[in-house]
Amino acid sequence: MELTWVAVAGAFLLASFVKGTTAMGFPLIATPMVAMLVDINTFIRPRLYIMDAIEAMEGNGPRSGHPRAMNFLLFSTDPVALDSIACRMIDLNPEFVPTSKPGEQAGLGTYHYENIELLGDSLDSFIVKDFLVERSPPVHNAGGRLRGFLRNRLTPRPVIDPDLCDRCGTCIAICPVGSTALDWMRHEAGKVPRLDYNRCIRCYCCQETCPRGAVTVRSPLLGRLVFRK
To answer: Of 56, 75, 172, 201, which residue is the least packed, with the fewest Cβ within 10 Å?
Structure first.
């Protein structure tokens, strides 16, 4: 199971303009994070967005993925359209990207292919259908008990591979929730860290920072059945 963070490049790049913030600790599908990205783009309004995809990353990114030659550059004054075209190049529905609809509603651009004007080489010649990326819609947070039920049974979750984990503790150190969500198993020396999915906020910081690529993101059984994965 892979993440779709690469697909929100047009909007996500400007998050660094917020003093003291990083991607760590922000679950991308959370409404506040999406709203922040759209607001930043609305406020700053860059003249040009550039996506360098001469060589991309697929799989268990952003730290443990694999390079994949894509051989294209995208230039656009419309960040929503840029992300939309990038999505189509990796055979991903742009509606699955959390910033697409809010970005269009905010007047930043359009993700509808029929409304996007393309210049340059034919798009069909760049489409890579076997690009390894998560192809399912995000499950948005609900409230109260329903939120916990949906999150634990539908949304992708981090999973630690005991054969790859070297027990370095990087994931525990980076977890924004702390030991209530991810910690060593008591009285069981040598075991991999334990994840409490009732506490996990699905920020995937552990997956992003694992130096061994031992943490992957997978959908629970119900999530795979609902989204036919």
So the answer is: 75
86 shares a domain with 40:
yes
Question: What beta strand segments (E) does 59-167 contain?
Answer: 66-76, 157-160
What H or E segment, with its residue span, contains residue 118? none
Residue 48 lies in a domain: yes
Of the residues 66, 95, 126, the one at which a domain ends: 126
Evaluated on CA atoms 130, 228, 148, 96, the torsion sign reads: positive
Measured in degrees and rounded to the nearest 5, phi and psi for residue 218 equal: -130, 150
82, 113: one domain: yes
Residue labelled with tokens 């027990």: 167
According to DSSP, the residues that pair with 43 across neighbouring strands are none
* Residue 138 confidence (pLDDT): 66
Question: Number of helices (H) and strands (E), helices first, in the chain?
Answer: 8, 6
28 vs 122, residue with greater confidence: 122
Q: What is the pTM of this model?
A: 0.68
